[in-house]
Amino acid sequence: MSNYRRSYLPGGVFFLTLVTYHRLPLFSKAENVSLLRKAIAKMRTENPFEITAAVILPDHLHFIWSLPPDDSNYSQRVSRLKVLFTRSLQKKRLLSVDISASRRKHRESNIWQRRFWEHTIRNDDDLQKHLDYIHYNPVKHGLVSCPHLWEYSSFHKWVDQGNYQPDWGCCCGENSPQIPDFRDLENQVGE
């Protein structure tokens, strides 16, 4: 059996990756993105924290969460998010009933992979690299040609705050984008 060790730092900032079961493109449907957002909002009322950055892709999600000073329990929040979203699909009868014996035994649906990926943000440079990774991810996966074209991303919020130029990573018009180098993050992102 694998020995999973997670880093828990009160008040920490964490990069997280959650992946759908068998990479099912659940979030290619706007209705499911809406259900996810509602699940996140409910979870945040129960256990407050800040969502520093996020991107919703068809088959996985990336977040950067900043926890309150006395709290390190992002695992509980991830678990709750998965439960709330899964229940919302059940209520809408959007869940497949074909669930393996192993998943039934562990009381799991066929919505999420069992595990999730976590990385503790160490400093400002590490944070910037992970922000860039999140915001460039739709381009990396060939979903859009430029970060500003992806609707389900915090990129727009970061542009509005003046932290990114609107044409960052963009190839629209005459732009020749500088593509970020993510090789040093390959073991940290869980894709």
UniProtKB/TrEMBL annotation:
It comes from the Bacteria. GO terms for biological process: DNA transposition. Residues 9-137 form the Transposase IS200-like domain. InterPro entries: RAYT_transposase (IPR052715), Transposase_17 (IPR002686), Transposase_17_sf (IPR036515). One of its GO terms (molecular function) is sequence-specific DNA binding. Gene3D superfamilies: Transposase IS200-like. This is Transposase IS200-like domain-containing protein. It comes from Rippkaea orientalis (strain PCC 8801 / RF-1). The lineage of its organism: Bacteria, Bacillati, Cyanobacteriota, Cyanophyceae, Oscillatoriophycideae.
